[in-house]
């Protein structure tokens, strides 16, 4: 199995990717290769938010990587702002071409982690995803509408394929639980020993990087999407990431 991470080489994401790499090496013995792909920052496009163009560039890198893999390869495409906390091969126990992480609440998908069984169908899906995302890059209002509905233009293009664009005809697409396979803000309150991937985004990234170190922020309780309070505090999840950051800084695994 291969894990592929793409970022643009800025200090923050280089640091995040370093912690991710170490977490994979310590916790996922089933991963044979960790491929960190650092690319040039894409040019800004008039009228488009920066993260639209950044994520579109990431999609193109992911597509090229999947096209380069032999048939049958199992690949996890993953954002740099994550850590891996256990083996990943179990995700592939269910046979699929594309595995995507479903999250509860208003935003149904987070595309920061995608599981791929490489074959002609999954390559065709990646092509269709990039092509649909390119349509959004060329139509600002469509991109903005999709981002408001799905939390990002690339997530809007993905969900369009799943729901309207015959994505299931192109490839066998299977949804996996965010709680376990891409634990994001809507599921942080469910974090437990079964969580395999923790996504360090938004407020949690601020806590990890020390941008919000005041005790009030660190002790914030995490809530479910329907407002049920969890016993888990922001500081607990931040400490999960900091352990890998500190070990990587000391040279562990290098």
Question: Describe it for me?
Answer:
It is a single chain. With 254 residues, this protein is an alpha/beta fold. It has one domain: Spore Coat Polysaccharide Biosynthesis Protein SpsA, Chain A (Alpha-Beta Complex), CATH 3.90.550.10. Helices cover 44% and strands 20% of the residues. It is built from ten helices and ten strands. The protein has helices at 11-27, 50-68, 120-138, 140-150, 153-163, 167-170, 178-181, 202-208, 215-218, 234-249, and strands spanning 2-7, 33-38, 74-78, 82-84, 98-102, 109-117, 173-177, 197-199, 221-223, 229-233. Strands 2-1-3-6-5-7 form a six-stranded mixed sheet, with helices on both faces. α8 (202-208) crosses α10. The radius of gyration is 18 Å and the shape is globular.
Topology:
Blueprint: E1 2-7, H1 11-27, E2 33-38, H2 50-68, E3 74-78, E4 82-84, E5 98-102, E6 109-117, H3 120-138, H4 140-150, H5 153-163, H6 167-170, E7 173-177, H7 178-181, E8 197-199, H8 202-208, H9 215-218, E9 221-223, E10 229-233, H10 234-249
Parallel strand pairs: 1-2, 1-3, 5-7
Antiparallel strand pairs: 3-6, 4-8, 5-6, 9-10
Shape: globular
CATH architecture: Alpha-Beta Complex
**Sheet with most strands:** 6 strands, mixed
| Number of continuous helical runs | 10
Here the CATH topology equals Spore Coat Polysaccharide Biosynthesis Protein SpsA, Chain A
Distance between the termini: 20 Å
SSE run? EHEHEEEEHHHHEHEHHEEH
Q: What percent of residues adopt helix (DSSP H or I)?
A: 40-55%
Q: Mean pLDDT across all residues, rounded?
A: 90
Radius of gyration: 18 Å
By CATH reckoning, the class would read Alpha Beta
Number of strands: 10
Strand order of the largest sheet: 2-1-3-6-5-7
- SSE class: alpha/beta
What is the number of domains?
A: 1
Q: What is the beta-strand fraction?
A: 15-25%
């Amino acid at each position: 199995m291969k894990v592929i991470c793409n970022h643009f080489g800025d200090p923050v994401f280089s640091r995040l990717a370093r912690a991710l790499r170490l977490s994979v090496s310590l916790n996922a013995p089933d991963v044979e290769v960790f491929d960190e792909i650092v690319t040039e920052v894409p040019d800004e496009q008039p009228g488009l938010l920066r993260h639209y163009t950044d994520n579109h560039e990431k999609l193109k890198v992911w597509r090229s990587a999947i096209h380069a893999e032999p048939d049958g390869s199992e690949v996890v495409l993953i954002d740099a702002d994550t850590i891996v906390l256990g083996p990943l091969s179990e995700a592939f126990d269910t046979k699929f071409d594309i595995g995507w992480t479903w999250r509860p609440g208003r935003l149904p998908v987070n595309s920061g982690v995608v599981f791929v069984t490489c074959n002609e169908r999954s390559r065709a899906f990646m092509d269709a995803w990039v092509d649909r995302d390119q349509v959004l890059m060329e139509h600002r209002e469509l991109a903005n509408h999709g981002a408001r509905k799905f939390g990002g233009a690339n997530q809007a293009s993905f969900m369009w394929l799943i729901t309207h664009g015959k994505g299931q005809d192109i490839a066998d697409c299977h949804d996996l639980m965010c709680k376990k396979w891409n634990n994001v803000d809507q599921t942080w309150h469910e974090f437990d020993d079964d969580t395999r991937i923790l996504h360090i985004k938004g407020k949690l990234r601020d806590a990890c990087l020390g941008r919000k170190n005041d005790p009030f922020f660190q002790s914030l309780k995490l809530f479910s999407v329907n407002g049920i309070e969890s016993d888990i505090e922001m500081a607990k999840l931040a400490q999960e990431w900091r352990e890998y950051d500190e070990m990587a800084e000391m040279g562990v695994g290098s």
